[in-house]
């Protein structure tokens, strides 16, 4: 049984109308009505050995990132975060200094975005550190569900792709064989992996101005997350390889690592940029407004097309894009 | 570092007023205001090997109990459950048949109490099955915080104590040395352990009629949970051993197991009865009303007293009650 079948089993068992429920399983957040407000709820878990390793995620950035990836789900709905709940599973004895550093990181990120920690649970976890977070927020009036993309929309991304995957590669190789990369580049890429920036103001801006149709945050990788939009919307897509925003840091590091930078950009996860579709007629206006209001450059990387397939256009040919996104229940 | 220190560390780092937050960490649920409604949120995790063993909790009752223990937290606040979020960590490969049985149980309990499952996450869990649930509900206008007990209040419990602990003992010994106990008794006690009944209607009844001051659900055991009320309220208590409601099934089984039935009743956890304090002048009225409206017998087991200590009155003496409640971060 793979992860998709597991999720389908859950979804099927519970898929029916329910008073107050606008959207259940299947988007970045669930959407419910409570007392006249539209409320977003997202929940995510991070497990040691599955989502992170102690040598790649020290406690302080782990605390920040654990909250940041949930904030990113709220950003992808154009929402505003309010309250968080934390469940911490810790091995026995608790690793020395872990808790204070982790909480310092968690608190830093909570303070940056005015999120209150309201509760949680601590428990003994024999399998290593586990972190469960539930985040509650408020939605904007217009919600950019994954299912709203239409053929003809332009596909945009909010920033560099692949930096996080390259940073993770560097972290994994530390202590082993030295790779010659300038310190500034190493710092930038490791930061992209350890301290992703939840794009909350950008998400709100795009949604409140009604520029976007469908939006998702890039957690599993561009190929995998774009497929989510396409499947939910019943459309295909064509990405233009030459337009993918790659940083100079990524290009240099990929060369030193002998890795394909486009592979890292397309299949590497955890960039936590926003990926969204925009009606063609809105695109130029949106790009200009995002620059004026937020000094934010947006990258037009392709187009939503009829059909179900995702194509990748290179300077030489067009081919179907494969997805190597991570599936927790497939061995590979 | 023990669990209490861990929780204190978290609480201290986040303890400050926050707009919309009525009660943060420290009660059965967090309490927030959203759009004019008072909303309860509770989150709990169950880990294989820590909170349950496969041989004592098959998938179907596990699915029901996982939701029931969260419903019990809402019951302890006198609230009404609305939406649930489920995070399932599963080993690889997923144990055959686990998911469909677990979900069948979860859905049964959700349907019984009209709870919608709105989302969640599935992930690979190398340390065994892990279940994280977040439950959102609506509060009544009057909320029976743990901190509201006052000296002079009578202490009540909603049903038998120790049955769940006795059921767990029987399950643990299955396959091993046979204990001679009638099948009906075995069934009753195992059901008390595997399928605890969340006392939602009783919780709402007690709170809406304003009978109770402080309330908690019995998850860690009477001694431990009463201490929570006493510590939060800055009071002591005196329990009357002779008044503890023990079932005939518990008495017979304790004898066969050569265990002290009062030990199971005081220190055994997971009864999921409601424990609450009631102003003396309300007590008789409440007992009568609960019987008339719900055919529910309530058991007066002692009194809240000044001071900080909890005493246990036996027919022969009064002694201070020790707490053997489970602490995840202490070795014992």
Q: What is the strand and helix layout of this fold?
A:
Two copies of one chain form a homodimer.
Chain A: H1 3-14, E1 21-23, E2 30-34, E3 37-47, H2 59-75, E4 80-90, H3 98-112, E5 116-124, E6 130-138, E7 154-157, H4 163-173, H5 183-194, H6 200-208, E8 215-217, H7 222-233, E9 236-240, H8 248-257, H9 261-267, E10 274-278, H10 280-294, E11 299-305, E12 310-313, E13 318-320
Parallel strand pairs in A: 4-5, 9-12
Antiparallel strand pairs in A: 1-2, 2-3, 3-6, 4-6, 7-10, 7-11, 8-10, 9-11, 12-13
Helix pairs in contact in A: 2-3, 2-6, 4-5, 5-8
Describe the 3D structure.
The structure is a homodimer of 332-residue chains. In chain A, a hairpin with a 2-residue loop joins strand 2 and strand 3. The first copy, chain A, starts with a helix and ends in a 12-residue tail after the last strand. The first copy, chain A, has helices at 3-14, 59-75, 98-112, 163-173, 183-194, 200-208, 222-233, 248-257, 261-267, 280-294; strands at 21-23, 30-34, 37-47, 80-90, 116-124, 130-138, 154-157, 215-217, 236-240, 274-278, 299-305, 310-313, 318-320. By secondary structure, chain A is of the alpha+beta class. The first copy, chain A, is globular.
């Amino acid at each position: 049984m793979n992860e998709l079948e597991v999720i389908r089993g859950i979804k099927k068992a519970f898929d029916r109308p329910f008073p107050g429920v606008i959207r259940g399983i299947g988007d970045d957040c669930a959407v419910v009505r409570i007392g006249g407000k539209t409320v977003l709820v997202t929940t995510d878990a991070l497990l040691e050995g599955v989502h992170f390793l102690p040598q790649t995620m020290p406690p302080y950035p782990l605390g920040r990132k654990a909250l940041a990836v949930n904030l990113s789900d709220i950003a992808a709905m154009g929402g505003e975060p309010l309250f968080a709940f934390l469940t911490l599973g810790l091995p026995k004895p608790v690793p020395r200094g872990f808790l204070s550093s982790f909480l310092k990181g968690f608190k830093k990120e909570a303070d940056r975005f005015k999120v209150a920690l309201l509760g949680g649970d601590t428990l003994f976890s024999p399998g290593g550190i586990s972190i469960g977070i539930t985040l509650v927020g408020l939605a904007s009036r217009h919600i950019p569900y994954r299912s709203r993309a239409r053929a003809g929309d332009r596909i945009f991304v909010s920033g560099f792709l692949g930096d996080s995957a390259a940073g993770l590669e560097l972290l994994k190789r530390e202590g082993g064989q030295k790779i010659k990369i300038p310190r500034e580049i190493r710092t930038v890429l490791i930061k992209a992996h350890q301290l992703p920036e939840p794009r909350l103001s950008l998400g709100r801006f795009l949604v409140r101005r009604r520029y976007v149709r469908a939006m998702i945050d890039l957690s599993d990788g561009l190929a995998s997350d774009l497929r989510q939009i396409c499947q939910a919307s019943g459309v295909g897509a064509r990405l233009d390889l030459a337009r993918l925003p790659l940083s100079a840091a990524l290009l240099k590091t990929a060369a030193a690592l002998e890795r394909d930078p486009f592979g890292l950009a397309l299949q590497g996860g955890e960039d936590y940029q926003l990926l969204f579709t925009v009606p063609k007629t809105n695109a130029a206006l949106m790009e200009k407004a995002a620059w004026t209001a937020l000094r934010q450059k947006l990258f037009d990387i392709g187009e939503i097309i009829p059909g179900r397939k995702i194509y990748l256009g290179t300077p030489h040919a067009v081919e179907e894009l494969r997805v190597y996104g991570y599936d927790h229940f497939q061995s590979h």
